[in-house]
């Protein structure tokens, strides 16, 4: 169950303190130019070493592509890649060997598997998301060929919420802030949490534009359902909204319905998805990240023998995991959209004859 | 893509104004007592003919089981069932043959498929959810055997939000209200929307208790991610939250983390899921339903030739789709949990020897 | 696990002596003309009531389509269908309630499920194959749109093997014989087995022509591997060959390799598949059917308490299941090929831009 | 589509002349002792450098495990592994850059993907099977815990067929011969083919013992169907038989049916599978390998511009690919059986309560 997607399928592997994290992206159409510099730039955005929000753990995070490309282009074979774990300091975790860190995966995974790689969360670590970003970068390259793109930014840090959604500004902001007027205050909130040995939550907006109408497979692979799965599956996300989202529950139909004109939709409450299928309008997603669970403050917990203990987590951790998480949400969104673009081929019978009838078999 | 689940897999079929809706539930363990009265009672809850919130369309909604049971017990074979469409009045839709109803699937599905069953939304109609409820009822029977159950109720109608979450009270409320003190006001809000030819949104809470720790398959079939997919895929849902949900984004780590004691978790922000795996605590989900898109008020729209038109939708529609939607959310939650209970078998190597070694083959 | 296929996915349900058998075919592209007369004609071929080889059980075998078509064309929604079980005589099986019929599924399924629908094999009965034939008929309609077709016939009955492969002749032969010169002798072999209360095996050839090069998804959904799975899964098949098949193991490379010229391949040992992908040449499959396990002769067996017993099976059974099985093999082959034609869309990146770039979203 | 299996799922990647081949095995239960020496010994058997039948290409074939194990045991996380390509001599293939090698994947894959890694077949090379062997080795470790094992050997080389099936002898034979009396003649047949610049086919027998009754998921994941898929998907296999296989088609029912006594089945024509489910008897599979398509003799072919050419293949190739292929067939069989053992958990409702009810959630 470490694979995601139908026709475009990402399988990931690796642990926080093992040799590497990595992945296999299967189903990439042949002939796609594999722009390694772009892939690296996406990893660099996730790494965010410069940002106050991110972990002080310094990883080079170089993606090494092992297969599936030949002379710069995809061959149709699975694209495997590794990202070495260079900055492992497993001894940071020696004190935690028998303790369940609150709000982490430690307890529930131990109940499931009965064994435990205690070093930095092992497989449950957000470090795995580097592999998602590589997969998402290739998905973005696929989407480029049909004129679609995915962007994101941070709209709120803790209770400090912005109103402006300037996705271009976010690209240059160290905390990926969407609202330039709130950036300083949001930055300070993160810094304060860090100083206090605490962490802080965040709200992330993801937007996809240029997405053709018709993507999404009703009824059990609806576009919004698969996006919700993809985003809720990102570490620390606790809520996902599409379009007006939670606000829609407080509306009347006459307020919420997006009426239509020849120029397009007259409002954007649907968030680009109608009946689980893209409408051609921009796809708007909101992700709510909880604060990083690793904090230095003392917390009550249990050890693996279920004795009561107090834990203080040292290690190196993001104080606001939502900042880097935004890049992961983009990646997951891109993976879903590219997958749906592939799955939608054949939705009409004329797609088949258009592809196959011109070919004359030998 | 009309199938849901891995080991327990529901496939549904049927349109709003065709002969029937129905489904096939595959993967039900053999030997389960198939309690048809219980299945029918779940359908009756969804049907909600008595409720002010529901559509005046009256369907008997009798589930006919076609296969997979023998002498009252499941055989391991797929359980197929039909629910006849008795009350079809397709002529209600004749005026809509060429019009896209705003906020419905009409436009996006037409772009996808190029053909259209205009009668009541065809496949995109919420009527399909009757099949989900049958599947969910059988999933609940499976969950019963391991001591788990799923409940739900309505916490808000439009802006009228309750605070109390009394799941027992909700079972007897015509609008499934969780807060008895808000029920009258919420009921009136629905009635007012109906009188005005309008509709209204709602918030639904779903709770699962008795769920063993260890369910959920990291990293791409996490329990919360699959629940988010399941719930977002219910018609009219625009946002899904787990535990503290959106509120978590405004918290500090020291507030949000659920600390642990020998008596269990000291708070419930996680909503019963840690690292994508159940913790044994109650699973808490919030679903936000938009208002029913079908309203009698005039709305701007397009026809299938993309001419601008005005539409007034007659038909028979729920004025608050979230009320009946709560039953569907329960069903989807039960399907996910039962599937995950099956998938988790074999998470530890000793599960295999415990099952197989006692058997001596002939 | 009662579903077959990726993009075109058949789910079947129903037992030999229940209300019906049926299925749901999901993933049919929208706009396909659903030729119900053709579907029925395929069912009629399988039914083969006229043939000496077939069971005397007389079923009307009418396929009733429940969903997924509107005004004669597919809508993209799942196509569900039922075939009623009219001629059930369950009392034929009363004597067998506690007995395992040799070479049937009885013993192994009882070990798996612990319960048993003893009436005619329940779910394991070849009657389920009627649902496969309906699914396969729709797959053939899809294949027609790209110029491909699937045929079959019987090449051997017991040890009486034909040499000629006249697929047109087979269509008119009561035992679907491929070699007109052997038909009488093969017919007599079947009749003799029947008279003796015995049954007899058969060899079936399946051929698909007009299949475009490029179908099959390496490395774990190779065309030949999926065909082998599809055919081996047909009741009573014990061996599957592609092209030269078993004979290839006795050849030298210089004999076996199909050399190429501008006019095409110079021989046909590959059977139309190279490296798991179709080559454009005719696809040739051989299926070996064991004799029907139900025979009237006394056989040693066990009862469900594992006591030794003797069984004599009355019932109504095909004396040569391979004859009707050939139609099922055709259906399974068509399902695989249509699925692979859909899956192959997107094998080249230019497929995506050809489909999506001309569309301008609203 | 480079993944195989349901609950135990192998994903492979890599090309013949790229950096490595590798794989990810997902779904391994936690707590399994990962015996790396055993894994290596399986790779060594496949490598078969000592054998006259194998390619002179010398690879160390060391499996490096990257993830999923901690302190010698599986953790439930995916097990990724790499096998470096040390002995790449891509220049051997320069002459073949524009030529389709007869009976190879070259032509059909070029038709599918439009691009081509001409070096040694790229992804289509049998070198990928090293990854299957690693996955299969771990599957064997899983099977050990339930007392099951898988063996294989070569029964025929070209037309020289053995009668004895001595699986222990085969383990020590350089050509994995099952019949000691035929080994010398079979070895000479391979040597002669090699001297002549030719290659030769082979027949392989695979046997699994200790397999519990009840494995296989009817109706579309039958054990025999999945085995047929698994084996037909091995490079160069053209036919697969279960039990009596092709011989069954020439039998009468009274000959073919395996009657039962308290001591077990009285014959073994079924090959351990009844109705698609294991019976507890030994599972017997026969695989027919065509000769290696790479031969030094001149052959007519086409180039990528479809001009007629003559090709003589130098490179380094097995002269009898079936010899090493037997180890791959074992691996695929083990993967199927371990997957089915996991899938079968939950076939009876009491499996669920046995696992979950003793657990008391926190």
Number of strands of chain A: 18
**Largest β-sheet summary of chain A:** 5 strands, antiparallel
Helix fraction of chain A by DSSP (H/I, runs of at least 4) = 25-40%
Mean pLDDT of chain A: 93
Q: What does the radius of gyration of chain A come to? A: 21 Å
* CATH topology category name of chain A: Chorismate synthase, AroC fold
CATH superfamily of chain A: Chorismate synthase AroC
Tell me the number of structural domains of chain A. Answer: 1
- Note the gap between the termini of chain A: 41 Å
Number of distinct helices of chain A: 9
Provide a short characterization of the protein structure.
Helix content of chain A is 28%, strand content 21%. The first copy, chain A, is an alpha+beta fold. The radius of gyration of chain A is 21 Å and the shape is globular.
Question: Would you mind describing this structure in some detail?
Answer:
4 copies of one chain form a homotetramer. In chain A, strands 1-2-3-7-4 form a 5-stranded antiparallel sheet, with helices on one face. Chain A has a 5-stranded antiparallel sheet with strand order 9-8-10-16-11. Helices cover about 30% and strands about 20% of the residues of chain A. Chain A has a single domain (about 5-355), classed as Chorismate synthase AroC (Chorismate synthase, AroC fold, 4-Layer Sandwich). In chain A, a hairpin with a 4-residue loop joins strand 1 (about 5) and strand 2 (about 10-15). The first copy, chain A, is built from 9 helices and 18 strands. Chains in contact: A-B, A-C, A-D, B-C, B-D, C-D. At the A-B interface, strand 1, helix 2, helix 6, strand 11 and helix 7 of A face strand 1, helix 2, helix 6, strand 11 and helix 7 of B. Strand 11 (about 235-240) of chain A pairs antiparallel with strand 11 (about 235-240) of chain B.
């Amino acid at each position: 169950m470490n694979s995601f997607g139908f026709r475009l399928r990402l399988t990931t592997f690796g642990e926080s303190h093992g040799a590497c994290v990595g992945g296999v992206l299967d189903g990439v159409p042949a002939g796609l130019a594999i722009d390694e510099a772009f892939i690296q730039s996406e990893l660099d955005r996730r790494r965010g070493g410069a940002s106050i929000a991110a972990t002080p753990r310094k990883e080079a995070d170089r993606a090494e592509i092992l297969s599936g490309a030949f002379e710069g282009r995809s061959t149709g074979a699975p694209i495997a890649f590794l990202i070495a774990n260079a900055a492992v300091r497993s001894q940071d975790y020696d004190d935690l060997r028998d303790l369940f860190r609150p709000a982490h995966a430690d307890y529930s995974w131990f109940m499931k598997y009965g064994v435990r790689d205690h070093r930095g969360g092992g497989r449950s670590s957000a470090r795995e998301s580097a592999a998602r970003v590589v997969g998402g970068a290739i998905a973005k390259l696929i989407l480029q060929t049909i004129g679609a793109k995915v962007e994101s930014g941070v709209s709120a840090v803790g209770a400090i919420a912005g109103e402006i959604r300037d996705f271009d500004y976010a690209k240059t902001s160290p905390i990926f802030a969407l609202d330039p007027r709130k950036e300083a205050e949001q930055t300070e909130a993160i810094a304060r949490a860090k100083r206090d040995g605490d962490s802080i939550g965040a709200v992330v907006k993801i937007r996809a534009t240029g997405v053709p109408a018709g993507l999404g497979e009703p009824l059990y692979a609806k576009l919004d359902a698969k996006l919700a799965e993809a985003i809720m599956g990102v570490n620390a996300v606790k809520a996902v909204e599409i379009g007006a989202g939670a606000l829609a529950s407080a509306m009347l139909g006459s307020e919420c319905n997006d009426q239509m004109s020849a120029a397009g939709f007259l409002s954007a409450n649907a968030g680009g998805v109608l009946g689980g299928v893209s409408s051609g309008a921009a796809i708007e997603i909101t992700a709510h990240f909880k604060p990083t669970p690793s904090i230095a403050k003392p917390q009550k917990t249990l050890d693996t023998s279920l004795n009561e203990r107090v834990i203080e987590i040292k290690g190196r951790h993001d104080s606001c995991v939502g900042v880097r998480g935004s890049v992961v949400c983009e990646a997951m969104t891109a993976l879903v959209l590219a997958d749906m673009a592939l799955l939608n081929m054949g939705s009409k019978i004329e797609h088949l004859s258009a592809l196959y009838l011109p070919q004359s078999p030998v």
